[in-house]
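@here heads up, posting the sequence + SMILES for the fe (ii) ion run so it's all in one place. Ping me if the SMILES looks off, I pulled it from an old spreadsheet.
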Amino acid sequence: MSSLPITARHGKALNPSGVRPTDAPAWIDEVDNPYLHGLFAPVSTEVTADALPVLEGELPRDLWGGYFRNGPNSVHAPKNRYHWFDGDGMVHGIWFEDGKARYANRWVETAGMKMESEAQAPIWPGVLGPFDFSAPLGPIKDTANTDLIEVNGRLLALWYESGKPYVLDPKTLQTRGVEDFGGQLSFPLSAHSKTDPATGDFIFFSYGDRPPYMRYGVLTASGELHHVEIDLPGPRRPHDIGVTPRYSILHDFPVFFDPELFAKKGKRVPLFHPDVPTRYGIIPRLGTNDDVRWFECEPCYMLHVVNCWEDGDWVVMIGCRTTDPTLRPDRADGPIAAMLSGLKLQANLYRWRFNMVTGAVEEGPLDDANAEFPMIRPSVIGQENRWAYLQRIPFEIPATFEGLMKYDLRSGAFTEYAYGQGVYGSEAPFAPRAGGAADDAEDDGYLVSFVTDTTDWSSACVVFDAKDVAAGPLAKVALPQRVPAGFHATWIDGATLDAAAS
Ligand SMILES: [Fe+2]
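bot reply: prediction finished. Complex structure tokens:
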């Protein structure tokens, strides 16, 4: 056993200066967990700032809209073992108009966070458990910290464990309440539900530790809610869903926990079962459980889908696939060893093809680089596309993004921009040019990301020309405070923001 604290052994690369971020809450100093320090340390304040200084380059005048990024930002010290996924959701937003930018950050004011603020103490254990089934609102706190999706002009914050869709004001990031689709929604939604750009249908799924293990549904563009329960052999950990014009692709990976151990001891340890096939369930857009056609594939895990489309009799899915999600905890890491092993993400671009007539499956890698958090032009969701924008992730420093990659999905080739030594980025969604035409080239637009420099804890927003990522940012804008490492981001165009405010 090492005598060094776990944070010191794992935190050096994330905190090369050794200087503590001064804007982090004092309580982090009492918690030996690298995902509460350095690049991952929460910030303590909500800030609003106009007229951000442009440090380098020039902001394009046809960059009109907002970039929003969600992530964990704990208010209180953890009740017991902390996992990076546990922090209360905080959204950092930057708005662009006429070559100027403004910024704000706000916590997602979830019911759980409010209860803990009133109690001035944590109430729930984190996802590492053991769970308290008598806790109010359920055994785990819904933090809404994972994803952001715009649905009918409303900005929703969603949680990867499936929770309530919290509505944020897209102009201020203030929490406005919980979306229930006109009283129709009575169950949780997962992060990574999706909107079909062609129809406006909102396609969602959710999953749980107890039956029903999966739900699937669609809020149609006309506002009707269709939802069904999906039979699974037990509790599963799907993270995303694929969408084509006629189908949705549901995920059943051989990574699951023992439901009996969960029921008896409140322990949930998802393990990889390499002798169990991965299954993808292809369901018609408004289908039921009986309509699902399951395809068996090589065992694996996958967090994020890049895109899906139809090609004659085939349904194609491209995603960031983890070949071997076996946990390899280091005993020296003690109670958080499983978390540290689990965050060592190893994923590469991969393509599956499913034949809807013959049942045949074709699958194989497109590339071997460690790359995740894929983004595409939103208008091509469900359509065959060429370009995807991913983050390069160093295996040695899990959950950090060290460069922006532009992949050609036809050839598997990529170009890349490295954020710089000790500088880490955020998910980089595509922002179409304001006033652009429907027949603009697929990569005619911008990519937006936050970067944080671990040597001085400054953060900035960087804007890339999507046609030439390797050239580096067109503009770099100073942010008024540090942005910790986080999860998912989205872009909302200016016209949608204006309409939402009226
Ligand atoms: Fe995700």
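MO: Helices lie at 6-11, 111-119, 259-265, 337-342, 494-501.
MO: One more: The chain has one domain: 6-501.
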